[in-house]
Description:
By secondary structure, the chain is an all-alpha fold. It has helices spanning 4-32, 36-56, 61-77, 83-93, 96-121, 125-131, 134-141, 148-156, 162-170, 176-199, 207-230. Helix content is 80%, strand content 0%.
Amino acid sequence: MLTKTEKRHRNLKRLSVVCFFVAIILFVLSRALMLPEIQRSLAEINDWFLRIENFIARYDVFMAFTIIMVLFLFKSILPIIPFSVLFIASGMVFNPFVAVLVNALGFVLMTSVKFLWGKKFGGGRTHKILGEYKRISEFMRLEGKGNKWLLVVLCFIPFLPVGTVSRAYGATKMRHSTFSGLAVLGFLPRLISWSVVGINIFNPFTPTFIAPFIVLLIISGLSLLVLNVLLD
């Protein structure tokens, strides 16, 4: 009879295998989409996406930036909007470099609200949530100073709520500037991947659109293996 911990390890390993398997399937699909006969069949659909892109391009860029920042701020208070939606929205409006910068700024804004909340009022129930992962909780506190490099790992893992981690670290003695820099570093692979999805949203039947999903799946698989080690 497997213990609860053993079952958790087994499930994490299975999920990681699924992520890698789906990534391989998407890679094969991306190669198949390059076949000339398939490209001809998709030409009309791509033309429809191009018309949508031209429609969005008419809107003021500054207004789009303001709306996206407000949505990031809104998410920090009521986390009902998925990260992916906000990151994709930036990619739809801005060029690649600007989209990544805008998303990084929005991410810092959102996590800062949670971090400062934790600094002011303490970790609250976030410690209870992370308390289920005893090893992580012990590493994270690091005598009250906050484990810097574990923060990068925790932000790298897609299955841990970033808001929860931000508030928990706010309750430590870590400086806000240090927290923001390391949080962005850990989240950067996902941030860039979703930005690229938004940039290529109007060309969905191309390898450049599928590639970020492959990267995200690989990240998820690797992070599950990392989480499995941390929980050991």
